[in-house]
Structures are given as C-alpha cells and as structure tokens.
Amino acid sequence: MIEMKVAGIALDAGSRNPVILLRDVADRRALPIFISHDQARSIVGALENETAIRPMTHDLFANLIDEWDMVLRRVIIHSLKDNTFYAVMTLAQGEKTKELDARPSDAISIALRLNAPIWVMEEVIADASIPVDREADEAEKQAFHNFLSKISPSDFAQRGKSFSND
C-alpha cells in the first residue's frame, strides 16, 4: 500500500466535474478520482477547516466516531472495477477493529476531519495514477537502462555462486 495525501480538488476540463487529486508522499504519482459537486464541497470544507452552522453528514459521522470513543485508523482505496473505485474505512474501538465499505469520496472526507491516513493499493496506483514528476521518472528509467547495459549473463552466474556458498 502507498500512503497518499489530498493534493486538492480540480475541475475536469471536458466535463466540468470535480476531481479529487491524491498524491503519494514522494510527489511522484497522482491519483485522480471523479466525485460529485457535493462531495467536493465537503472535502474543500475539511481541507479549509470550515465549520458549518449545523453538522453536515461527514461532520456527523466524524462526531459519532469521536463520541463513541472510536478511532478511524485508516482509509484504504483497494480496487478499481469498471471505472469505479472501492474503499474501506478501518475503525477501532478498544481492541475491536471493523472495516466498513465506503465510497472513496466519503471515506476521504471523513479521514480529513479525523486526521486519518489514506492508503491506496499498489495495483490501483498502477492502473489509475498519473505521473507528477516526469523528470524523476525518466531519470530512474535511464539509470535502470544504464544498469542493464553494463550487466552480462556471467554476472548472474557469479552472483548465484556467492549466494549458494552462504
């Protein structure tokens, strides 16, 4: 799993629908997830530490977790099927832990309110992320090609012998 942070909300240029952007902590990959306008408002409110006059749904859920002495341990975006992301929220109360199925946008909105970490499975990152730092990606790719160009099959045979002698 890869820990992600909310980089912000953007509007898709073509559809004008909001997109939440998650970024890995190394700022190398971004994961865009389309969300509704209501979800976008809720997430922006959490990012800007806004307090509504009356609790909105995500505030209510966060308040419920606090009042019942529970902890949101983490949000995990675990799969992508038919262009739909799936997530779970891991909640704990004392020694008991439960996972609740949740839409990623709801889970992220609540995680922001409770300062809980957001994790994404590597397969989801591989399938749906976009590069943020193309120069670093290209440098890493070039270094790997340089490594491969300097290695020969006999190097593997040598390494295999040293491993078998251990």
Automatic annotation (TrEMBL):
Coiled coil: none annotated. InterPro entries: BFN_sf, Bi_nuclease_dom. Gene3D superfamilies: Bifunctional nuclease domain (3.10.690.10). Transmembrane segments: none annotated. It comes from the Bacteria. Residues 1-132 form the BFN domain. One of its GO terms (molecular function) is nuclease activity. This is Bifunctional nuclease family protein. The lineage of its organism: Bacteria, Bacillati, Cyanobacteriota, Cyanophyceae, Nodosilineales.
